Amino acid sequence: MPKDLDRWRRAGRIGGGARDLGVGLIRPGVQRRDVAEEIERYIRSQGAQPSFPVNLSTNDEAAHYTPDPEDERRFATGDVVKVDVGAHIDGAISDTAATVEVGSTRYASLVAATRNAVAAAEKELHGGVETQVLSRAIERTIHELGFKPVADLTGHTIESYLLHAGKSVPNVTGMSNARLEPGEVVAIEPFATNGAGHIRNGVFGNIMRFREAPAPDRFPELAELFQRFRTLPFCARWVAEPELREALHRGRKRLQSYPVFMEVEHGWVSQAERTFLVLEGGCEMLTP
Ligand code: CO
Hints:
Creatine Amidinohydrolase; 2 domains; binds cobalt (II) ion
């Protein structure tokens, strides 16, 4: 059991609130940069920090897109948008997502597929469960509605300051298997698509992180940014100072950058995600 369980619960509630706020903000004509900034402002106003930049991946983008500071794009009717957010309080991390179809219901069953898949996995989640039992529940639920799970993306255990800890919860069977123990925190994160069920790397998604501390004598601006973000993911929107933003742009090659994950057949993708605490006889949803 995490010693600071109360902090994990608070981070979870703030993450869930941020997700629902985002879902409510997304409408036709709304600028996606404004939505990202408003969600992140909410997280900070609650005494937490974003676990990572708000992801607003759209349509065949499966994950890892956050608006850059100049992003002018607005949501359009029919867009399928994944609101993937998290809050952390001193390293106690939450991770949660929901999918919004903007102003239409053409993809309602694609959206339902991942929402139902999380619920199906939740029913099976308890201390000692093998992750393949959860994978089977997820896979079956998504197939039932006529879609494919995205095989390359997985749920994951979470530890303090570590968003992707050791164990994975695949969205299909036949991948890895592990046993989840009481006291572990796990994000269940199914993705469903009307495409092939695989992803490839697309263009830079505006999310990056330091692999290591830059040398302060050679890269003073980058070293200043490292003090702020350490090794956690961040984005240029979080850097207000023009000279630091410029240094970040110049020094981008020195950082790990995250490409957008695109569905290989340009299938459209939905995602749902909740963070759970594993208990002896069941689980507690930390991100209601
Ligand atoms: Co996650």
